[in-house]
Amino acid sequence: AQSVSQHNHHVILSEAASLELGCNYSYGGTVNLFWYVQYPGQHLQLLLKYFSGDPLVKGIKGFEAEFIKSKFSFNLRKPSVQWSDTAEYFCAVSTYFGNEKLTFGTGTRLTIIP
Amino acid sequence: DTGVSQDPRHKITKRGQNVTFRCDPISEHNRLYWYRQTLGQGPEFLTYFQNEAQLEKSRLLSDRFSAERPKGSFSTLEIQRTEQGDSAMYLCASSLPAQGEQYFGPGTRLTVT
To answer: Residue B107's closest chain A neighbor by CA?
Structure first.
């Protein structure tokens, strides 16, 4: 069975700082990878996804993530964060067997200080 | 709003009572998923439907849990004889086949006292 690790539980940054959140997965086969975000009081929203092709994917709000197959990693990055990026970020993986159930990491709480 | 909706948003119940939650997916989505999320954890898969067929159930889903999607549209999740350990946020998501991307509802927060 697949699993996802997010090693940063809580990250605190100042506005304009650069962000990188780690995500590692455990699965030997082909995977689809996702980053979801949950803003305070809101539901989970898709930030970006990787299925195949260019391992550097761009998402909404200036976020990007890079799939490194050899490292089983899918780290999320943003060059300059804003206060509005304060949220909880979840990395997730699915394996395609006709059922794309998601396996999530434990999440990283991001706090941006104005 | 054409997103996934869930009802109720909050439910407080006493231990031993039965509760039922409803999920209305995005109208053209024929896949519907239930997840459970506890504090400090990511969502955990419970079960999923393709149209009205329940195709997979997690081992997390004890015999006290049952889910239905009778007409392939909305779905219900029932918990019988609730226990304090059932306290969690129950999330519903929907998708199109092979799309991979799931759209989540706001969740139902269950508190068992």
So the answer is: A43
Which is nearest to B52 in space by CA: B20, B35, B76, B36?
B76
State pLDDT tens for residues A5-27: 998 999 999 999 999 999 999 98
Residue pair A91/A23 in contact (Cβ under 8 Å)? The answer is yes
Chain A partners of B43 at a C-beta cutoff of 8 Å? 44, 90, 102, 104
DSSP annotation of B59 = T
Q: Which secondary-structure segment (H or E) carries B68? A: strand B65-68
The chain A residue lying nearest B36, using CA atoms, is: A104
Tell me the β-bridge partners of B13.
Answer: B112
- Write a three-state SS string for B69-85: CCCCCCEEEEECCCCHH
